[in-house]
Amino acid sequence: MKITFLGTGAADWDIEKRVEGEFFRRLSSALIDDDLLIDPGPHIFDFCKKNNCEELLDEVGDIIVTHSHVDHFNIETVRKLCERKSRRILCNQRTADMLVGISDNVTVVDFGQEYKAGEYTIIPLNANHSVNACGEKGLMYIVEGKNKRIFYGCDSAWIPYESWAVMKTKKFDCVVFEVTLGDVIGDSRIFEHNNIRMTELMLETVRNRNLLNESSIVCATHFSRFAHEEHDKLSARLASFGMIAAYDGLSMEF
What we know:
The chain contains six helices and 14 strands. By secondary structure, the protein is α/β, with parallel strands linked by helices.
């Protein structure tokens, strides 16, 4: 199995202010192998164009959506994807309501249930994110397939206990945490996003419970533009406890 990060930025990365030649993050999205897309955000076609791979999304048959925030879910992106070919969308009820008239191939998913998506089994997990306060159920996902398993935990502050109860029964070949915040002190976003210290604590527990294999990889994504140091320093900071700082275009097999 392979994960390719199409975007690794939080919502404060403004593509209109991108300066050619300077380091930039698009809004968060990821591609599993060539056929499962996580979060159809507004920047995925820009990724394809800038990297001369405009056919990259042609094989995508299923799309899983974490929540309806505009940096993760873009109606025009979905419209364009579905104009090219029929694609199934797995999402929460709030997102499904927004897709009326856009796609009729939508599956509303529930916590802890298993769903088939091509060669994969998808297990939605509850997230701790601000959308929950509006009645929406923010989601994280376990993706299983080809004898591999990945956890994609974005967006969420910590891992809610009921989701941890599912996770702790499994082993993972790849774990992806959101690390929106750096070491900023006093930022109220820690109630819906992780900072570095929170992520380090969770990873310690994941390792202590033997949820990783010897060859497992652990990645971080969804970085706030204004809460982190430059990428090289961030990479060194996360590497100190065994985590890879993802960047747009990073592709890893596991």
